[in-house]
């Protein structure tokens, strides 16, 4: 990249937290040398339990790249979606989850972002899922916005379930998910990965209870951390996962407890 291109990239609202793009798009995008099935197979060998494989979604990838070929964000996103679809069609995992951490900050882009996401989800041979969050860089949210602006996007997804950041969000925002299409399972984030404080089992159980009263206990299909633990030390991540399991068990043992599959 030229210096002028670097300056332009750093000035973009979606990428002003980065110093350089992860890649420059100089020609048509295809599967090329990307080999997600091999990465999936290698990870699957590490467990004998149900296995979920995750990958970054086409919208976020498109927003992070510097594009000198398509020069059109929706077209770039669709090209990335088609390349990812070819890959996930050969991935063998119980759940394949596509992650989007940029769209919450650009909710008006949801119609074509949903079309791109569905191209990937429709290629999944097993259970397709989608994770959305507001980003996590240095323990900070990258995107600003609300979940209420993305209900149309969520309802358009061809996903079995969604995995949402809700622990780090205002509690009152949960109510917007009452409008989620019934056919989509709702995953409730109960562990705040942007905080180094380890939740207690009682705090986890109370979070599940409050969400159940807001949405209906039967509506919550999974509980999980808001996002990944990559910014946290291993001992903190382990403590949070232990609290998640103990809190789930505590809630299920209460008079108002509900039972779900193991959280992903």
Short description:
This protein is of the alpha/beta class. The protein is 35% helix and 14% strand. It has 2 domains: 1-134 and 145-158, TIM Barrel, CATH 3.20.20.210; 160-264, no CATH class.
Low-confidence stretches: none
- The radius of gyration over CA amounts to 19 Å
Helix content: 25-40%
The structural class is alpha/beta
- Tell me, briefly, the overall form: globular
CATH architect. name of the largest domain? Alpha-Beta Barrel
Can you walk through the features of this model?
It is a single chain. The protein has helices spanning 3-11, 36-44, 58-64, 73-88, 110-121, 151-156, 201-215, 234-252, and strands at 24-25, 52-56, 66-67, 95-100, 127-132, 161-164, 185-191, 220-225. The protein is an alpha/beta fold. The chain has two domains: 1-134 and 145-158, TIM Barrel, CATH 3.20.20; 160-264, no CATH class. The chain has a six-stranded parallel β-sheet with strand order 2-4-5-6-7-8. The chain has a two-stranded parallel sheet with strand order 1-3. Helix 4 runs parallel beside helix 5. The radius of gyration is 19 Å and the shape is globular. The protein starts with a helix and ends in a 12-residue tail after the last helix. The model has no long low-confidence stretch (mean pLDDT 90).
């Amino acid at each position: 990249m030229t210096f002028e291109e670097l300056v332009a990239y750093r000035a973009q609202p979606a990428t002003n937290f980065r110093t350089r793009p992860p890649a420059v798009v100089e020609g048509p995008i295809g599967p090329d040398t990307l080999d997600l099935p091999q990465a999936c197979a290698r990870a699957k060998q590490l467990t004998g339990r149900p296995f979920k494989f995750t990958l970054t979604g086409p919208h976020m990838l498109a927003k992070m790249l510097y594009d000198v070929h398509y020069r059109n964000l929706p077209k770039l996103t669709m090209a990335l979606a088609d390349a990812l679809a070819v890959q996930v069609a050969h991935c063998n995992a119980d759940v394949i989850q596509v992650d989007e951490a940029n769209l919450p900050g650009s909710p008006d882009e949801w119609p074509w972002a949903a079309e791109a996401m569905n191209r990937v989800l429709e290629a999944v041979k097993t259970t397709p899922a989608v994770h959305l969050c507001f980003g996590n860089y240095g323990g900070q949210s990258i995107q600003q916005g609300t979940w209420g602006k993305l209900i149309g996007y969520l309802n358009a997804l061809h996903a079995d379930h969604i995995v949402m950041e809700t622990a780090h969000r205002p509690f009152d925002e949960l109510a917007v998910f009452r409008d989620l299409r019934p056919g989509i399972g709702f995953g409730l984030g109960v562990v705040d990965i942007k905080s180094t404080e380890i939740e207690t089992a009682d705090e986890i159980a109370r979070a599940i209870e409050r969400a159940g009263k807001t949405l209906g206990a039967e509506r919550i299909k999974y509980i999980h951390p808001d996002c990944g633990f990559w910014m946290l030390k291993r001992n903190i991540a382990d403590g949070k996962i232990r609290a998640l399991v103990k809190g789930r068990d505590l809630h299920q043992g209460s008079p108002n407890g509900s039972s779900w599959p193991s959280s992903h």
